[in-house]
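EI: anyone free to look at a 107-residue chain?
SC: sure, send it
EI:
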Amino acid sequence: MTLVLELPVAVAFGLRTRQALLTVVLVNLLTNPLLNYLSAATAHFVDWPHGSTASVAVIIVTAEALVVIVEWRLLTWALGEPSRRMLALALCMNAVSTLAGLVFWMA
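SC: here you go
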């Protein structure tokens, strides 16, 4: 689901070559399973998703911030694109997928 949401964001940012889109996929294959693992591991410490709203928010924001930083640096390195542009891309991709995930979880 993450790639279905994030690839169109990458295309909207002008990444249209096969290499660029494959890079986005590979970066996601590195970060998404790790994020899911950390979320599952965190469930042991917080009554997830029914725990303290503040605790859950801190965990989600921290985890997503780490993912954005890793994806930003990997995309900048792999694609040779301007750093600010790749930061904006990483932020937008993760905002879209995080919001969709929250809507999915809350439903």
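EI: The chain has one domain: 2-106.
SC: 👍
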